[in-house]
Design goal:
Elements: H1 2-16, E1 30-31, H2 32-38, H3 43-46, H4 53-63, E2 71-72, H5 77-83, E3 89-90, E4 96-97, H6 109-114, H7 116-128, H8 136-168, E5 175-178, H9 182-191, H10 193-202, H11 204-221, E6 232-237, H12 245-265, E7 270-277, H13 282-285, E8 293-298, H14 301-308, E9 313-316, H15 320-325, H16 328-342, H17 364-377
Parallel strand pairs: 1-2, 5-6, 6-7, 7-8, 8-9
Antiparallel strand pairs: 3-4
Helix pairs in contact: 1-8, 4-8, 5-8, 9-10, 9-11, 10-11, 11-12, 16-17
């Protein structure tokens, strides 16, 4: 299957190099929790059993007709447990949730701006991870233990992904690391959704200064030795659709644009998850350096193709909700509709508009049927 893996990988290489591939590549994203449920496992138990992670990776590789293994690990519960995480918790059903948390008080902007690394280490992390809220010696031990666990677990996950790609003729994992827009970092982990919504009205200049202060941290997070067009920096975009146009242009956009420009200049091309509806900001997105992949959640496919499809790689827009309740015929019909709009001229990877987290999010039979259809129909 190694030769088939090379052929599959070439589909994505052609896209990244601005060529039209033999057919539209299929890239299905699933959180590992979806695959665990598909395999009949109990989420409350298996997420602690690291030895079974490899089995789940193989289930993903062989089951869903994606050109890249859909198994995505975003939250590793043993690491969060070591840290005593307050910002990511397991629910009674086994799903990991992100409650609204506050890592920074509104009066602490000046501290963050003066030294973002020190402030994050001394103030934010102990508030988000209760086991770090201790004396420096114990804090160092907890942090070292968590980093060791993180390295050990991902040290098994990444090589096994590559092995499964070669075994089942798939392309290698397209994501090499993750970063986040400076404004989203402050909103998600520092001030919370409600907190940042107040701050942009009460002290917008401080928020802008804070975005500039954390920008170098976000750039550093997004550039790795293996970064490339085929090993992209994943950036989920959160807050922009909830902002007024003026606030977006003044506060959100400047540092986000600088982040993407810095990543591209270093060869760490981004894969943006454009969450919610960015229709107001398509002209801004088209200002980014050419070759950024944008996985859209909502929006008009024709407009998105016209606005950004010549310069950037489009993905997303296929409604995951249809895969949950629709018939196979309906699901395939929607795939044809979207492909007919987005595939002409290239610069298109077929993906769904969301990542499947729970078994109820999508009928696996519909996923398989749609992916098989795309491979047969979307040939150039």
């Amino acid at each position: 299957m190694l030769e088939q893996a090379k052929e599959t990988q070439q589909l994505f290489i052609d896209i990244d190099e601005g060529r039209i591939p033999k057919r539209v590549p299929v890239y299905t994203w699933m959180d590992i929790t979806y695959i665990m449920q598909y395999a009949g496992e109990d989420l409350r138990r298996i997420q602690w059993d690291v030895d079974k992670f490899k089995d789940m990776i193989e289930v993903g590789a062989k089951s869903f007709q994606s050109d890249i293994n859909p198994a995505t690990f975003t939250r590793i519960m043993p690491v969060y447990n070591i840290l005593g995480a307050e910002n990511f918790r397991m629910s009674s059903s086994g799903q990991i949730q992100h409650p609204e948390v506050v890592g920074m008080k509104p009066e602490e902007y000046d501290e963050l701006i003066a030294d973002p690394y020190k402030f994050t280490h001394d103030k934010v992390l102990p508030r988000l991870y209760k086991n770090l809220d201790t004396n420096p010696v114990k804090r160092s031990m907890v942090f070292a233990k968590a980093m060791k666990a993180h390295s050990d677990i991902y040290g098994q996950i990444f090589p096994h992904h590559d092995l499964m790609a070669e075994k089942y003729g798939l392309a290698y994992d397209r994501v090499g690391c993750q970063s986040i827009a400076p404004f989203d970092q402050i909103a998600d982990q520092f001030r919370s959704f409600s907190g940042i919504s107040i701050d942009i009205r009460r002290c917008p200049d401080k928020v802008m200064e804070a975005c500039e202060a954390v920008l170098p941290m976000m750039i550093k997070a997004g550039i790795k030795p293996h970064s490339s067009k085929q090993k992209r920096t994943f950036i989920p975009l959160h807050m922009a659709p909830y902002l007024r146009q003026a606030d977006f242009e003044k506060i959100y956009w400047p540092t986000f644009k600088k982040l993407v420009e810095a990543l591209c200049a270093a060869g760490a091309y981004p894969l943006l998850f454009v969450e919610q509806d960015w229709s107001r900001f398509l002209d801004h997105l088209n200002e980014l350096p050419a070759g950024v992949q944008m996985m859209f959640e909502y929006g008009d496919p024709k407009t998105i193709k016209e606005k950004v499809g010549k310069k950037h790689i489009i993905s997303g827009l296929y409604p995951l909700t249809l895969l949950s309740g629709g018939t196979k015929k309906e699901c395939i019909g929607k795939a044809k509709e979207i492909i007919d709009i987005l595939a002409p001229g290239g610069n298109y990877i077929f993906t769904f508009d969301k990542v499947a987290l729970n078994q109820v999010d999508a009928n696996p039979e519909n996923i398989i049927a749609v992916n098989e259809f795309v491979k047969e129909y979307a040939v150039y």
